TrEMBL record:
GO terms for molecular function: monoacylglycerol lipase activity. Keywords: Hydrolase. Transmembrane segments: none annotated. This is Alpha/beta hydrolase. PANTHER family: HYDROLASE, PUTATIVE (AFU_ORTHOLOGUE AFUA_2G14860)-RELATED, MONOACYLGLYCEROL LIPASE. It holds the Pfam family Abhydrolase_1. The keyword GTP-binding does not apply. Residues 74-176 form the AB hydrolase-1 domain. The keyword Hydrolase applies. GO terms for biological process: acylglycerol catabolic process. Signal peptide: none annotated. It comes from the Bacteria.
Length: 340
């Protein structure tokens, strides 16, 4: 009997050893990256705008992509919560080819911009920073495209600076509903920070696989997991985790959906219909969870709330149309921008 068990144990060990390289190959080995993405090359030259905010000296990173044949129009591309300006590379290149000047900021707290951990974050602050950036670049007015959290920033900018907003485009923006009013419990900044400190590369990949891509992974998604995951390996990550907690609190407590009716500029909604993003739905009942983040319904409600707005529904697409389905995302965008 002992001999038979030994043989069986050796057989199991052999099988596991044979499978180990295959299993580990699925998990990429990542190198640490600084929380300001030091050493990571953006697709276009990066410039910095010096800001004074709440007694602190800050630097806002941005890219300014100049077209070879200008059409006289500018567009600002605003990134989402889990992203930075780099993921707009293809969009910016094609817009510049069509004659648009393309400005791509990293909001304070994100990407290559200052990780300010001692300020109060607000969408009003971010909108004001965009105004200061336009002033620095001597741009009078602009179209504004916001994705995910960037949709909330773009909405606030359009509300606060309507005379500088030619057109507004919202691509799967968060904030189409007030989660707090719907019954999602408030989560303290400390609780958000504790959650952020538990993040790992494997956990980030799992979240994006389930939440963005419906369990279907493609190589083109890898860079955006790595860019989010590698800073978690930095010794400075606790500071970034605190900043992330502050911006989560901003998103949850500063809804813009009640003001959609005040938007007067031409507005386009591009909504991936598979999206179910909602902040805090991991802390609610199954019944409430099923009601949150219903983007097909939210997109139609928002179109009705914004006077004269247009809605493009992308069937079978999730939270990230510019990455998951660029060929479906870009044509309605450029068509709307070029429409006189």
């Amino acid at each position: 009997m002992a001999t038979r068990l030994s043989i069986y144990a050796l057989f199991v060990c052999f099988i596991l050893c044979a499978l180990l390289p295959q299993l580990s190959a699925d998990e990429p080995k990542l190198e640490p990256l600084g929380i300001n993405l030091e050493g990571y090359d953006y697709p276009f030259p990066v410039h910095y705008l010096k800001l004074k905010e709440q007694g602190q000296d800050l630097e806002l990173a941005y890219m300014d992509v100049q077209p070879e044949t200008p059409n006289g129009h500018t567009i600002i591309l605003m990134h989402g919560k889990n992203f930075c300006g780099a993921y707009w590379k293809r969009t910016a290149s094609d817009l510049a080819a069509a004659g648009f000047r393309v400005v791509i900021p990293d909001q304070i707290g994100f990407g290559k911009s200052t990780k300010a951990d001692q300020i109060q974050y607000s969408f009003q602050m971010m909108a004001r920073h965009m105004e200061q950036l336009l002033d620095e670049l001597k741009i009078e007015n602009t179209a504004v495209l916001g994705h995910s959290m960037g949709g909330m920033v773009a909405t606030r900018f359009a509300l606060d600076y309507p005379n500088r907003t030619e057109k507004l485009i919202l691509c799967n923006p968060i904030g189409l509903e007030d989660w707090k009013a719907k019954g999602v419990p408030y989560r303290s900044i400390d609780a958000w920070e504790a959650s952020e400190l538990k993040k790992s590369p494997a956990g980030i990949r799992k979240y994006q696989l389930e939440s963005y891509y419906d369990g279907k992974w493609k190589e083109q998604y890898d860079p955006w997991v790595e860019l989010l995951a590698r800073p978690t390996l930095s010794p400075e990550y606790p500071r970034l985790a605190h900043v992330n907690a502050l911006t989560y609190d901003m998103i949850f407590t500063q809804p813009v959906c009640y003001e959609f009716g005040n938007l007067k500029m031409p507005t386009l909604l591009i909504i991936g219909q598979r999206d179910r993003t909602a902040l805090g739905k991991d802390a609610v009942s199954a019944e409430l969870k099923a009601e949150l983040g219903d983007y097909p319904q939210l997109g139609r409600q928002t179109q009705q709330a914004i006077p004269g707005s247009q809605l493009v529904e992308l069937e079978g697409i999730g939270h990230l149309p510019p990455i998951e389905a660029y060929e479906q995302f870009f044509p309605p965008l450029i068509g709307f921008l070029e429409d006189k």
